[in-house]
Every structure is written in structure tokens, then in C-alpha cells.
Amino acid sequence: xxxxxxxxxxxxEGPVSIVELALEQKRIHYPLVEHQxxxxxxxxxxxxxxxxxxxxxxxxxxxxxNAFFKDLTSIQLLPSGDMDQNVLSMRQQFLVKVVSAAVQAxxxxxxxxxxxxxxxxxxxxxxxxxxxxxDLAQYLQISEDLVKRHHVCELYSYGMxxxxxx
Length: 166
What we know:
Blueprint: H1 7-10, H2 18-24, H3 30-49, H4 62-67, H5 85-111, H6 117-120, H7 129-139, H8 144-157, H9 161-165
């Protein structure tokens, strides 16, 4: 980009402006940032719902694992459309666990009258984990419908029929 500057600013001495420093930075590879975001979301879900026996890196193939340890400005080979069925199965099980844990947390927070879940996790106000799991399914090449159907089944099994109908 071309930066026009006034004549008064041309003769200014001192440190380099933050705009000039930002323009000198290398461009990041956005798909690699998205890949990192998926891992962060997975790790946060594991932590938030205390999911046991989930190995986050097992949800990625070898290309995906290698991409985590590269510079964000480098162009990496990311996982293609062809995925091992074992990895897809593990991803599907993970998303089902997240949805089940989210519905269980919702049910337990409605039953507990003394402390609400929003008080325990104030930074999550308005976060809809089943919707987030469905969005994550797109990145993980899992059917969104499968995640949504499981969400509805979980709502019905916990007696929240009014939410399941919606």
C-alpha cells in the first residue's frame, strides 16, 4: 500500500512508526491460522468440560500435526480432502462428547439454584457450545447434521423437550 504523508511528518526524527513496522512484517498464511484456531478451540473444549481420554493431536493427520510447529508466515501443506477413516471417527466421537458435555452442563446449571454457570464462567456468556461444535465439524470434515441430531437427542434425553423442538 502507498502511504501518503504530509510534509511536516517527513522530517520527523525518532523511532519508526508502528504503521511502518506493521507494513514490513511478512504476510501470514491464513489457512494455517485457521488450523491453529481449530486446535485452540479443541483444547478449550477439553479443558472446559474436563473431557477425559481425549488426545487432541490424534484428531489430526500427520500433515496437520506438522503444520502446528511451523511459522505462521510459511506456506504449509495442510490436510487435504482425503482423510483416514480412523481420524474421522475420532473427530466424530470428540464432537459428540463436546455436545453431550454441553447439554449436561446446561441441565446441571438449570438444576443448581445457588450458583449459575455464568457466574462460574463469566467470559463464556452467550457461548453456545453445540453450535460451536457444529461449526467446528465443518473444519474437521464431519457432517454438521450428525452433530445437530446428536444435540437434539441429548436435549430430549435430559428432559428439555422444549429446547429439542426448537
